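**Entry details**
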Amino acid sequence: MSAVGLAEHAPAQRPRAESGRAISLLLFEAAGCRMALPSAEVAQISVSASELVGPAEASGSLPLIDLNVHFAAPPDAGLWIEWRRGDRTGGLRVVRVLDVVSIALRALRPMPAWLCSARSTGPFWGVGLDDEEVFLLLDPARLPW
């Protein structure tokens, strides 16, 4: 199976009734948690890391992180998300992609202090709520590439 673009592979975006500024997020499951990242930073979703294509991959140097393994959960088969921000890129393995949603910026919150260790939020910059389900906002730039 060849790599497919986000629009072809992800569920249809659900409209939100909230007004104001919003951000489109890709919701996914990894390490037993619901997580999200800006959908604008998703270059493609693939069933195999070898199917991710781009400048770094051509030289065989695309950094890959299995989020289950990174967060000390048992490895699990899943999809690969190619993340891109500017000239940074990497492959993230997730268990499954759940949805693409538009969330009002005012509905997002910084990481709660009790989830932070040593004044660091690790790879997360906030939390959000989607249909009464909490998710963590992942910042892949904070991962140890």
About this structure: The longest helix spans residues 6-9. The CA atoms of residues 62 and 83 lie 10 Å apart. Residues 10-18 have pLDDT under 50 and may be disordered. The two ends are 27 Å apart (CA to CA).
